[in-house]
Amino acid sequence: MQRPDAMVQAPTPKLPVLYAKALLPKGRGGGAVPGGGLVRTGVAADERRLLRYAQVCGFAAGGRLPVTYPHIVAFPMAMALMTARDFPFPMLGLVHVGNRIEQLRPIAADERLRYEVWINEPYAHPKGAAFEVAAQCTTAGGETVWREVSTYLSRGGRGGRAKGPEPAAAPERDDTWSSEQWEIPGNIGRSYAAVSGDRNPIHLSPLTAKLFGFPKAIAHGMWTMARCLAELDDRLPESYAVDVSFKAPVLLPARVGFSAGKAGGGLGFRLESQSGREHLWGSVGEPAA
């Protein structure tokens, strides 16, 4: 994570305004991203929002933040950076292809944290250009407790550096893995949008999704990741890293298969359709030093 030196203090961005800016036309996209990043200090979780988030994603209520919760706090800051006039890629059509979160220790629900968000330089991808939105949380004493890298693809965009990181390999499944079926309701996109603030039209209804080329509304990738981790919560250590690759979207409503088990010295998990189409795979291991 290449944290820039210039970090600008920013109030909570207003997401409706940012979504309006996302509709403004841009070219195909390419080139360097603006330097610098955004920071918010003294941020504590809203108790009611936290409870609702846990309910929507399947986490048990408790005195700790779900590992994916800081993402929804950082998300408006990321949106502010990606909708800036000098950001080189159009927001519409970006594909969230991967996510890595490192929880360095459990975070108490009432802790006040410093959130920092920035964007790393884009790189060439077989389908266009990819870039990483990085975020981290630190305490008032400077302890880093949480880090995230969200990877986005701009189809047809032009990358900067010639080569990006190698994609994560799918965890190998064997007959010791457990599996179960989930019924995902058609309104989960609206429920997650209400608590996360991510109101991308592709998640809200079949009508708005069709405007962007989807036959039905699709589940948020970050909801599918959160739901998988909620299912694994009692098997996870207090400090870990989780890497997820998002594959085919989950068309709503859906019946999917979740499977998980030991893989590569840690845990692996997969989410698949009834026909075996992969929606995501992920692995849990040690955080970076």
Automatic annotation (TrEMBL):
<dbReference type="GO" id="GO:0005835">
    <property type="term" value="C:fatty acid synthase complex"/>
</dbReference>
<feature type="region of interest" description="Disordered">
    <location>
        <begin position="156"/>
        <end position="175"/>
    </location>
</feature>
<feature type="domain" description="MaoC-like">
    <location>
        <begin position="191"/>
        <end position="270"/>
    </location>
</feature>
<dbReference type="InterPro" id="IPR029069">
    <property type="entry name" value="HotDog_dom_sf"/>
</dbReference>
<dbReference type="InterPro" id="IPR002539">
    <property type="entry name" value="MaoC-like_dom"/>
</dbReference>
<protein>
    <recommendedName>
        <fullName>MaoC-like domain-containing protein</fullName>
    </recommendedName>
</protein>
<dbReference type="Pfam" id="PF01575">
    <property type="entry name" value="MaoC_dehydratas"/>
</dbReference>
<dbReference type="InterPro" id="IPR003965">
    <property type="entry name" value="Fatty_acid_synthase"/>
</dbReference>
<dbReference type="GO" id="GO:0004312">
    <property type="term" value="F:fatty acid synthase activity"/>
</dbReference>
<comment type="similarity">
    <text>Belongs to the enoyl-CoA hydratase/isomerase family.</text>
</comment>
<dbReference type="GO" id="GO:0006633">
    <property type="term" value="P:fatty acid biosynthetic process"/>
</dbReference>
